[in-house]
Amino acid sequence: MGTKKLWVIAFTFLLVLFLSISVYAQTKVIKIGAIYPLTGNLATTGLDCKRGVEMAVAIINGKYDLSLPLAKTEGLPNLGGAKIEIIFADSKGDPKNGMAEAERLVTQEKVVAVIGAYQSAVTKTASQATERLKIPYVCSDSTSPTLTERGFKYFFRAECTDTIFAKNQFEFLEDIKKKTKSKIDSVALLYENTEWGANVGKEEQKYAKEFKYKVVADIPYSQNATDVSSEAGVLIKNKPDVLLHASYITDAILYTKTFNELGFSPKGFVTMAGYLEPGYLATVKADGNNMIVRSTFALDLSKRKPLVAQVNDLYKKKYGMEMSGNAARSFTAPFVVAEAINRAKSTDAEAVTKALMATNISGDQIINPWKGIKFDPQTHQNIYATGILVQIQNEQYNTIWPFDMASRDVVWPFPGWKK
Amino acid sequence: MTDQLVQQIVNGLLIGFIYSLIAIGLTLIWGVMNIVNFAHGDFLMLGMFTSFWLYTLYGVDPLFSIPVCAALLFILGLLIYRYIVSKVMKGPMLAQLVVTFGVSIFLANLAVFLWSPDFRLIEKPLLHGTWDIGEIKLSIPKFVATIGSIVVSVFVFLFLKRTKTGKAILATEMDREAALLMGINTERINSISFALGSALVGIAGAFLSTYYYIYPQVGGTFGLIAFCVVALGGFGSIEGAFIAGIIVGLAQTLGGFFIDPAYKFAIVFLIYLITVWIKPEGLLGW
User: Fold this and answer.
1) pLDDT for A356-405, tens place per residue?
2) Is position A378 within any domain?
3) What are the extents of the domains in chain B?
4) Is the minimum CB–CB distance between A43 and chain B shorter than 8 Å?
5) A265 touches chain B (CB under 8 A)
6) Residue A186 in contact with residue A240, Cβ under 8 Å?
7) What integer is the mean pLDDT of A227-242?
8) Is A233 within 8 Å of B123 when comparing Cβ atoms?
């Protein structure tokens, strides 16, 4: 044999080896894209969501004695123990970036599904991109109702919608009236003016009419404000019995400080999202006490659901802090996707979408307070999703509603600000 | 109703004077060098963080860390001018525009890297709480910041009108070539103005840190308003920026209260549009 032939053999050998490695790698790792606001005003929130996703992936890829889907096996058993790899992308909190990143994830990173976005406005544009590219998108952290009203084929949502949350808020007011004999006739609506907040406002208007409450003020505002005393002034002037506030984190902090400073104290603050962030309570401390926040997660749910405590222990070990509501919400999507891929026995987008349509995860397999996850065949909204209300008491979130799930009694009416 | 009217005027003044102080530094730099410092808001953020860390690590109240903030930002301004801005002053216009933008992105992300994107608040500053004057509530830290802002602005004004260096800055602002011919070292004036502008926003940061929350992106929010204030007051005009800051503060709170909070920024920009329509150079620009 000449040197030339030897070279050819060696080269062929190397080529085969190289190809087999890449084929091997392809079956062993399944890439899923995750879009979150990792920099910008919502960076703390994005980080929180990212941790929730990472925790979920650690459980899917590892072996844990938990009732979560795919926890007891390493990786996805139907795909030869394939591991999930998350490719994180930064939306910077901007819908334009979210869309561009979704395209990049699909076309360049070749992800088989996309999760996340947190902000409804970003989820909206990012899922437009995945819909066009025919890639499944599973969302467990955006709540704007319009997201599942678009008739998209590849978009699924496990999380509650604001329609349900808005209704929950008024059901809570009805319950509180019965329980405490508190007189509640009027509400004020305060909400940030992007996709999510504006929709919350719309839903709240609708339910206020249905439940016969007078809306004495309806105030949309821009999230990046330096001063909100005029908004607070309008609220003080109109004296609502209850304030319904839909905010992200910076505005939640600013409003809390301004309300305290100007002495705005209605009978109750019923709030959303921003008030649930670890950054909120860490910043305002005791000023956050008595705020009521809508949630789909609270650590004290573990009294009824031991899984919550088990996951929180793992989370605490990994990150040195308790799991927040946002981390818990983002935690759910990777399981939904991985479970569907495992059932589909394939990473093909059409097969995975078909499997998602047949998803039926029971309540004991999730940390959320739902009966389970099953998508509506038309809208792809989880038909079992419901909300709970938590209240900050002694700088901790406690479930207070529905009353039969409560771990503490609600403090009502608002006792006033501590100077 | 009258109570709320007075309350809103008070709130407008309290935030307006802070806008003034932030904008004065920006307009000074613009006036002398014809360069827009996009990193101005991030300098504010650095001032706030300086004050925060002095408080957290050494227990220095933000009120006493004002000189430190001013000195640190003065030095930072000098360095950034010497090693970055002065290099591109000779280059094309576009490079001048982009360079401070680059500094801005760098500083904001450096802050995220060093201190995480978390929100922080100085918990128990010496100044806290509110005075109740009848039905009117006056936030003590905001009130002190307002007084501080006025005092500092007056000092800057006197410095520019009375001292030799100050007069040289004003001369450079009016006509660079003529100033050069009169024997003014305009390069030195440039660096002094840039550093002085940075020091002023550092002081604003220290005041702001007594009541506002601190995070790496805080500069963007205030920076945007500072640009609006400078444009309204007239590019390069100290007095203009001072008055425009108060106008913007009042327009925001009163406009928001009487018309609709959703339109408060629209009202601010409407005032700006009307001003430049009647007087394109801004209120006191020339």
Assistant:
1) 999 999 999 999 988 899 999 999 999 998 889 999 999 999 999 888 78
2) no
3) 2-278
4) yes
5) no
6) yes
7) 93
8) no
Round to whole Å and give the CA distance between B70 and B205. Answer: 9
A314 and A262 within one domain: no
Claim to verify: residue A311 and residue A354 sit in the same structural domain? yes
DSSP secondary structure, A157-197, as one string: E-S--HHHHHHHHHHHHHHHHHHH-----EEEEEEESSHHH
**Dihedral sign for Cα atoms in the order B216, B218, B219, B220:** positive
Q: Residue A213's domain spans which residues?
A: 163-295+388-405
Query: Residue B248 and residue B253: Cα distance in Å, rounded?
Result: 9
- Together in a domain, A134 and A22: yes
What angle is formed at CA A219 by the lines to CA A126 and CA A273, rounded to 5 degrees?
A: 45
* pLDDT of A31: 95
User: pTM for this structure?
Assistant: 0.80
On whether ipTM exceeds 0.90, the answer is no
Structure confidence at residue A377 (pLDDT): 94
SS3 string of A84-106?
EEEEEEECCCCHHHHHHHHHHHH
CATH number of B2-278: 1.10.3470
Which residue in chain B is spatially nearest to A251 when comparing CA positions? Answer: B213
In angstroms, what separates the C-alpha of A255 from chain B's closest C-alpha? Answer: 11
**B interface mutation test: which of A223, A226, A419 has the most B CBs within 10 A?**
A226
Residues A70, A207 within the same domain: no
Cα of B139 to nearest chain A Cα, Å: 7
Which pLDDT tens digit goes with each residue over A175-187? Answer: 999 999 889 999 9
Of B4, B8, B117, the CB nearest to A47: B117
Whether residue A130 is found in the same domain as residue A245: no
Query: Which residues in chain A are closer than 8 Å to B11, comparing Cβ atoms?
Result: 227, 229-230, 233
Whether A6 is covered by a domain: the verdict is no
Tokens standing for residue B35 = 């360069």
* Chain A nearest-CA residue for B260: A219
CB contact under 8 A, B129 and A284: no
Residue B117 and residue A263: Cβ atoms within 8 Å? Answer: no
Report how many domains make up chain A: 2
Instruction: Look up the CATH number of the domain holding residue A283.
Output: 3.40.50.2300
Which residues does chain A have within 8 Å of residue B217's beta carbon, measured at their own beta carbons? 40-41, 43
